Amino acid sequence: MKGKRRGHRTTLVVAFALIAGLGATVPATAETPYPFRDPSLSVHQRVDDLVGRLTLPEKVSLLHQYEPAIPRLGIQPFRTGTEALHGVAWLGKATVFPQAIGLASTWDPALMEQVGSAVGDEARGFQQERPDGWGLNLWAPVVNLLRDPRWGRNEEGYSEDPELTGALSTAYGEGLTGGDPDHLKTAPTLKHYLANNNEYQRTTTSSDLRPRVAKEYDEAAFEPAIAADAATGVMSSYNLVNGRPNTVNPDLNDLVRSWTSRDLLNVTDAFAPGNLPGDQRYYPTLAEGDAAALKAGIDSFTDNSADAGPTVAAVNAALQQGLLKEKDIDTAVSHILSIRVRLGEFDPGGGKYGSIDRSVIDSPAHRKLARKAAAEGTVLLKNSGQLPLRKADKDVAVVGPLADTLYTDWYSGTLPYAVTPAEGIAAKLGTDVTSSEGVDRIALRNTATGKYVTAGTGDAGTPLKETADTGTPTQFDAFDWGSGIVTLRSAANGKYVGYNWSTFVNDQAQPNGWYVQQQFKLEQQDDGTYLLRYAGYETEEPWWAGPVYLGPVDADGTLGLVAKDQAAHYTKDVVRSGTAEAVAAVKGKDTAVVVIGSNPSINGREAHDRTDMGLAPSQESLVKAVKAANPHTVVIVENSYPTTLGALQQETPALLWTSHAGQETGNALADVLYGDVNPSGRLTQTWYRSTADLPSILDYDIIKSDRTYQYFKGRPLYPFGYGLSYTTFRYGDLKRVNGGYEVRVTNTGTRPGDEVVQLYTHQRTSRDKQPLKQLKAFQRVSLKPGETRTVRLKLTPKDLAHWDVTRSKWVVESGMYDVLAGSSSTDVRARATWQVHGETIPPRDLSKPTRAENFDDYSGTRLADESKERGTAVSASSAGAWLKFADARLKAGGFSARVAGTAAGTIEIRLGSPTGTLAGTAHFSGTSSAYDYTTVTGELSGGAKGRTDVYLVLSEGMRISTFSLR
């Protein structure tokens, strides 16, 4: 590990002890002149001094998320983990910026840094009152790559591309830190290391990362911010990588800490330590698991909420059992205290940023910045001349389920105010607009009793019951979110119906909570009646696997959960057609704006992946009906991920996309719709036409499965980097200059606008499969009509390197490279070729020990943990599994391999193909466990000579770590 100096402790402690001994006894309070409180000393000197003053129990107490006060040294409590993904969350009203995916769609690092700085200021503003949950260690940004758009947490990430993700996360992090790594405004933590892009069984699924995918893709997203000191650590993710839980991933020490010379504070995800002896069954006890995590590079345990007891007991048990030594505790505590020192906690007045107060929270400047970010992140997907709208055309209708509301996600802050799309357009025009949500208002009548489901009229609602009433309390607005899921908003008080673990009450402002209790399904029966099913958080089977249907459970008709055969049968009476109301609202209007999209608590969220990438059917029908009633229709899709828009994309004359963009959503959309802001957002993910374009969400090998724009060979709905403008841009020739390429870009339209110039490369020939295109640089440039600017983009031979599995190093191959500049990954406006003088990868030398994971191709295998501590092996998951090692130079001799597994089997060495010439066989009789390795040997035939592709064909259940052909 870099940057770990501990040589000053003894001198400093002795010196200050002598000074203290010359005068009266000084109480151990915050005013005591301990060296750790002296800002003139180095961070390492201060940390060394403080660690030296702590007792072992005190040090152990600091390893939990909730670090207690140490009164004898005047040290206050400290808590890791304030959520700050797109604003400070969970602490009260604060500026809510667009979701992370929306911020990223700006392709604007300068803006990202400004937003990060604003969020950092607001986190500091909260510190003055130290509310519950306060802390300056921020858990943001999320840099997991968006390789699969079905990921439930897609809204939290930036991009499917590591170059873009690295640039944006570095910018956001620099804003959060303040740019001075020794004097931190806040201490951002990157989430979630590593390869965490599925929520399905997220604590037990393993992401297979062969070395090229790990190095060129997943790790590449995390390194830039750490290397730039724009982040102060990583959070380990719930999932396993290559069979090993990330909570004990040795990368945390071996790799992540190698990216910087400064101390990092690495934390676990919430409750992840308990998963090691829990559902992962990786270690038998928490003591063994926590010890392994500390040795792997975890410093702080996020476990059991605020109860540090189990963690302290486990660490103490590990010390008693010899699993840990005090120096292991010292190392982790030093990392923690380094961050606290750099945050200014022990400086007079709280250090450089200690004077920031609550006045910064939701300040006018931050409101303006939120509006700018929301506008810049809006992407114009289609425009057949409909946009920008004319302000003179004031007779406007704004319809759709998201027309006059704003939704927040799990990691959003509390909105200080909300400007809806309808409100934003009305403010822009200076007049009222007609509005309709376009959802059906229904009543549910029990066919057996004739009674109606009835809600309470007060603000707090009441438990739903069946009554003879026929008025407003029996009416509900049924919002369709797709996949059969609806939410029911009571017409009686405007509140959503939710389950409270006993009854169903109309008391919720929005669908929300960890268990989203406001979800239902109306299941039509053969006789035309409906069963009302509680869909809860899990849309198929609830976690308790109990009754899921609604029916009366008390004599007074109160509704509760019952078994299906006891469920009430209801007629669904449509009191008001949402589509008909929307059509009436738009007829004869100058413009119809339809706002559709997702609910971030329902359509995909933490612990819940999407299974359907399409719009809710009723929303698509609504757009078609509105378009038929008014040809001057503009559609806004407000959601958190790529959507398969189907025929809508073809039929709609103008189409905009925005994320759930925070408090200024409506103003920002109005700015774009009416041309005060020229749309300049760009997509950071490929928008596929169908889920059929995607392999399993659990397949992490983007190279073999042709994932993301880098390898996808199909025709996307919208490509990576795509976004239209109200003006046009012309590109000149692409020219090689010192350190990169330059291209002259001219605004050839009549409006000022921003162009995002994107530079891609393609390697024409290579030993290895290469991306079709790969983003290497980008720059956002603002141009007035007729203005030309020269855009210079950095590109050096080093930037062309890929991971050579034959020698486990980065390599730049000699050859011809295409260099492409344009407005998206498919809209190339200028190109050049570059003859690069690098090296040629030589034939494999398999006479040296070769790690099995360094294969070129495979079938029927999984990557597995070689041992619980470190290393990757290959496991044969089916009979006839094979590994390919291309272009090997052979000479006849022997074969040996390190293998493990409880079942006997063979390794066949075949030449040319998995069924090619059999050159040798090694027999394996089995070992005591998958971690008990033995060496097996065999002889090679005389024909095993020259250059050829070598295949190892493995018996099912066998693990192989290394081998050699000698």
Automatic annotation (TrEMBL):
Keywords: Glycosidase, Hydrolase, Signal. Residues 1-30 form the signal peptide. This is Beta-glucosidase. Belongs to the glycosyl hydrolase 3 family. PANTHER family: BETA-D-XYLOSIDASE 5-RELATED, SUGAR HYDROLASE-RELATED. Gene3D superfamilies: 2.60.120.380, Galactose-binding domain-like, Glycoside hydrolase family 3 C-terminal domain, Glycoside hydrolase, family 3, N-terminal domain, Immunoglobulins. One of its GO terms (molecular function) is beta-glucosidase activity. InterPro entries: BXL, CBM6, Cellulose-bd_IV, Fn3-like, Galactose-bd-like_sf, GH, Glyco_hydro_3_C, Glyco_hydro_3_C_sf. Pfam families: CBM_6 (PF03422), Fn3-like (PF14310), Glyco_hydro_3 (PF00933), Glyco_hydro_3_C (PF01915). It is an enzyme of class 3 (hydrolase). It comes from Streptomyces pseudovenezuelae. Its EC number is 3.2.1.21. Residues 848-966 form the CBM6 domain. SUPFAM superfamilies: (Trans)glycosidases, Beta-D-glucan exohydrolase, C-terminal domain, Galactose-binding domain-like, Ricin B-like lectins.
